[in-house]
Amino acid sequence: MSEMLDIGGVASRLNKADNILIICHKNPDGETLGSAGALYWGLRSQGKTAAVFCSDPVHPRYDYMELELFYDQFEPRYVVAVDIAGTQLFGEKSAKWVDRIDMCIDHHGSNSGYADTMLLDETAAASAEIIYDLLVEMGVDIDVRIANCLYTGVSTDTGCFKFANTTARTHRVAARLIDLGTELQELNELLFENKSPQRIAVEQLALSSLEYHYNGCCALISLSRDQITAIGANEADLEGITSLPRSIEGVVVGLTMRQQPSGSYKVSVRTKVGLDATVIAKALGGGGHKQAAGCEVFGSLENAKRALLEETGKALDGSGLCPPEKPAQNPDTAEQAWAD
């Protein structure tokens, strides 16, 4: 298991390190990239050699971060993973670094403790919150570029401050980043308003697959790999799609199933306050946060769906959040009641 460090201990080790490789999780989103980008530029500002490694391509949407991606331009002497809760999230190309992780910086309570040392704060809404505190501790002068990276991480992992993981601390960090020059309007438009034609097609397909279960308390959407490929959607087009089923009135738990190139299904579980999403995800080998968790399920769509719905039903049972099914009414009785 990892040795747990505080902010001061992590800052001290990074201040002494050089030739630092920062690893993002596979299918990189705004949270892992924003965290990695802020740390990268913070280290660079102190004259250190650093680079960012992603197993999968980075969408051009994030070009403003101006990340230097790692292509063997130096021999890493210190390897840091950011926002990666478990080794299964490294991706195929990053797998070679799994046994060489010197430090992990993360906010997932389900972190498996794979790194030699770890800075973990599960009260943080995003890993970028932790990175902000770390850069301050390291004495980094947070410029506009670093502020933009941090804001990207914090805002995307909180759904632009709408998700239940958002705290007063989150808003304080965001306010400080705005004071430091974050390009707020431009980033909000880019990250939350602009949608590609492929993203619109993704939403149409997702909604066409919509199913309701457990008296309308559960909504499920699914996308096959063939559908995703046919419309030319990439990971950035799929970001945030997990919020769709939970946003429906009366839905307590929203489930999203996306088929991966390997054939397995990436499952995202989103719940309303009062139902712990990790209960469902952990039962299927995953983890995450109370209102946002995930796992990977193998097998056919129907078998994967059956297993997922079974665990969802167990979580809903006795939660008090889902009204019981209305009993079927005898037509004769109903007719008599109308007559009365």
Fold and architecture overview:
It is a single chain. This protein has 340 residues and is of the alpha/beta class. It is built from 13 helices and twelve strands. The strands form two sheets. It has a six-stranded parallel beta sheet with strand order 1-6-5-4-2-3, with helices on one face. A six-stranded mixed beta sheet has the order 7-8-9-10-12-11, with helices on both faces. Helix 2 packs parallel to helix 3, helix 2 runs antiparallel to helix 4 and helix 4 runs antiparallel to helix 5. The chain is globular. The C terminus is likely disordered.
Task: Outline the fold blueprint.
Elements (H helix, E strand, L loop, with lengths): L2 E2 L2 H10 L3 E4 L6 H16 L4 E4 L24 E5 L20 E4 L10 E4 L6 H11 L6 H14 L10 H12 L4 H10 L3 H12 L2 E3 L4 E6 L1 H6 L4 H4 L4 H4 L6 E7 L5 E7 L5 H7 L3 E2 L3 E6 L3 H16 L14 H9 L1
Parallel strand pairs: 1-6, 2-3, 2-4, 4-5, 5-6, 8-9
Antiparallel strand pairs: 7-8, 9-10, 10-12, 11-12
Please outline what is shown here.
The protein is built from 13 helices and twelve strands.
Total DSSP E strands: 12
Cα(first) to Cα(last) distance is 70 Å
The unreliable regions are 327-340
Query: How many DSSP helices?
Result: 13
Anisotropy-based shape: globular
Average predicted confidence as pLDDT: 92
H/E element order: EHEHEEEEHHHHHEEHHHEEHEEHH
Q: What proportion of the residues form beta strands (DSSP E)? A: 15-25%
DSSP helix fraction: 25-40%
Coarse structural class = alpha/beta
Spatial strand arrangement across the major sheet:
1-6-5-4-2-3
